[in-house]
Design goal:
Blueprint: H1 2-19, H2 30-46, H3 51-55, H4 64-76, H5 79-84, H6 87-103, H7 112-118, H8 132-144, H9 149-163, E1 165-166, H10 176-182, E2 184-185, H11 187-200, E3 205-210, E4 220-227, E5 230-234, E6 259-263, E7 271-275, E8 279-283, E9 292-299, E10 310-317, E11 320-328, E12 334-339, E13 344-350, E14 353-359, E15 367-370, E16 381-385, H12 398-419, H13 425-435, H14 439-448, H15 453-461, H16 468-476, H17 480-485, H18 488-498, H19 510-518, H20 530-537, H21 540-548, H22 551-560, E17 562-563, H23 576-582, E18 584-585, H24 587-600, E19 605-607, E20 614-618, E21 621-624, E22 637-644, E23 659-665, E24 668-671, E25 685-690, E26 692-701, E27 707-716, E28 721-726, E29 739-740, E30 746-749, E31 755-757, H25 758-761, E32 767-772, H26 777-788, H27 790-796, E33 799-804, E34 825-829, H28 834-842, E35 853-857, E36 862-868, H29 874-887
Parallel strand pairs: 1-2, 9-15, 17-18, 22-28, 32-33, 33-34
Antiparallel strand pairs: 3-4, 4-5, 6-8, 7-8, 9-12, 10-11, 10-13, 13-14, 16-27, 19-20, 20-21, 22-25, 23-24, 23-26, 26-27, 29-36, 30-31, 30-34, 32-35, 35-36
Length: 888
Amino acid sequence: MKYQITVILLALSLLSGCKMAGKGHLIADSNYRKLVHEQFLTQKKLANGRDSVLFGVFNQISNQAETEGLEFLYAFMPLSDLAMNDGHYYLRQVQTALESRSYFSWGNEIPEDIFLHFVLPYRVNNEYTDTARQVFYAELKDRIKNMEMAQAALEVNHWCHEKVIYKSTDERTSGPLTTVRTAFGRCGEESTFTVAALRSVCIPARQVYTPRWAHTDDNHAWVEVWINGKWHFLGACEPEPELDMAWFAEPVKRAMMTHTFVFGQYHGDEEVLENNQQFARLNLLKNYTKTKTLPVKVLQADGTPVSGARVEYSLYNYAEFYPIATLYSDSTGVCSATTGFGDLLLWASKDGLFDYRLAHGKSSDTVVLTLRANNYALQPEILKLTPPAKQPLSPVDQSKADENNQRLQHEDSIRNVYIQTFIDSVASSKLAMEKGLDAQQVWNFLMLSRGNWSEIYNFLKGLSADNAATGMALLHELSEKDLHDIQTSTLQDHLLAYTAFAKKTAHNHPDIESNNVLSPRIGREFVTNWRSYMQQYFSSEQIELFRKNPAEIAIWITNQIKIDTVGNYYNVPLIPQGVLELKIADKYSRNLLFVAICRSFGIPSRLEPATYVPQFFAENLWHDVFAGGMMAVSATRGTVVIQNASEDASFVPQYYAHFTISRFDKGRFITLDYENDASLQSFPCKLSLDTGYYRLVTGNRLDNGSVICNISYFNVTRDKQTNIAINLVSDAMQSEVLGKADLQAAFANLTQGGTNSLSHLMHHKGMVVALIDPSKEPTRHLMEDIKMVKSGVDDWGGKVIFIVAKDKKPADFNPAVYKSIPENAEFGYDRLGEVASSVSTVCSINASPQLPVVALLNSKGEIVWHSEGYSSGLGDQLLKQIKFSQQQ
């Protein structure tokens, strides 16, 4: 009896200790607690310029758990966060996390390391941070309080879907609250938002992404949740009836790498690709597909091993070789990574020497690379690169799927009710008339601003007759995403501070003045009130010196700002004010600071669009700075003329789709970014490039995901013209009848009304049938791809039918939302599944086809081409097949 009582008392004591979490040690391991404290002291010294702002809050903490939690965050946060927020913000993150842990029944079941690394961190990836944890916790806590942990995770994702759906946006990642306010986001924003929501209710979560797909030119991000000791995946804002279900479950089996970032020094059992004092990058591919280990051995020319060589596991995607993993060889010259069964280009470099080799997907043999000097005479070559093969998926419980689909439609209606609160065109027109502004321009700004419309409205309402034109020009310089999160006060600050300094020179370049002085947008940073800050920070003597010679700004920055190439590991740009306070920055943030200082004093400045080198404009020329970390004169340049060598006169090669150009630098080729350069939209075109050695990569993506890649090299010499040609190597296409569709298959015609059969709409030139799920990301990619080939499909003239698959039609589905699609297109609903049966079965696709399914039928109803599931660039593939079928 005494023994039993002792056990009971001990159990009660332990339980009491768990319930008191937050008052004792948050970090029970004394060794790890010591490590965290030492790293905290290092960070505190680093952030001495913001000491009181960041660390004064410790005087307000009354318990050990909050102290240790705050030290943990400070110990491992990137430079961008040391520069952005104050101590009260970070303390509130700790307090809410601890409150959430004590509120939910599963809080005390989460191991210490899982809580520290996957609940406590406020940052998910490279978003700008906000108060999402507090907002989401308040809204979600009562909704899921009485659920089991797994059920709660699914419910949080349903809540996320009520708020946000997928839409492609630019590369800058919005904060979770902006994503909610906007009601849409790309996959990186959806997953960031969903992880933030899960962590707010003490469900451990992490963002997982494939840096690039192997079988299609794109990437994707999703979410993993820790439930009862195991990690599970889910599609962010795309709820399924169970965990480990998502539309990407089939393509991820063809992935070559999946990554996640972990905040802090983590000691889990996953494969580590990158590890330092502040973070780890993990490879989680084994969670999703069959894998192999691919070793690389790096040697000197004499056969001795090379230690510390940079080894890039590069995957063809977006017409470049993108490093999905970067490792460094050990003392024996060896490194290895887990990957899939697809082809990779392995590239090793050190001290300007390099070697490369193609590693075939089926081979696990060690790849030996021998470093050599570049003789600027690499030989052109044609490679055929193959991704991992498709793998089957387990069937789903259709009854659960049907029930889930009904719920998704209700959640769509909830989101749409919110969207109806956005400003309408009537109120916009009234404002424009009141202020004497262009009504269409005002409506465009307010419409694009989505849930942030009141900030833009208030800015416009505050404009006077004297500054209205400049205010409108200021809004024109913002990206669509800027309109989602910029504040009235920030716009007013830039407008007022812009007028403080006249043009530095009387140049006759209105675009340069607007784009490179007035614009508050510099690169991919979050826009803040940097203009007035700079004008107050520097003395009148310094300002006069800067305006006389902008190169003096670069000299001042070089002398005052220390460069840290490691500490800003999430690559979120530091705001310019934060750089001046910390006196430390990564190179990109240093470059942003240069441009911000220049523009604050009326000096035209920019990041060069392709290389991101900071420049100022003087004497009708752009001048580079910071070459090699020092102030420098402009680089010597030559001219490159690019010809379109395609046999198809209607084909226009696209950068990052069909070709890229990269420059050789220190043993590696670095891709230049001309994605948004309008001058490359028609051929022949000209580029002004720094002198040097370059690589041209072109690629032709085939229907099965393989790529025929053409690699060539060229030199750019000073003041001379170099001619290069874009020539996509084609694979011999063969006409093949896959089967015959049942043309009597009936569907509801959503365009004309009534019921039709495929035979009723069959065109003498043939027909495209696309089975779609409008709520899922792959269909949205398809519809965007179709826009890109509209003119080619219109020239063909055949019928295009987009048919919503059975049980996939949202209650508010409206085909009118799809703009710029082929003229001869109609929409239908496969209410009974007859079209799916007609097309999918004949094509020998799995019983539950992965949507979208796209089939090309000739006039006889024979299927001559089909595609199933997620694939970027479907429009291009379809148009190629249409043109080929016309030649038969």
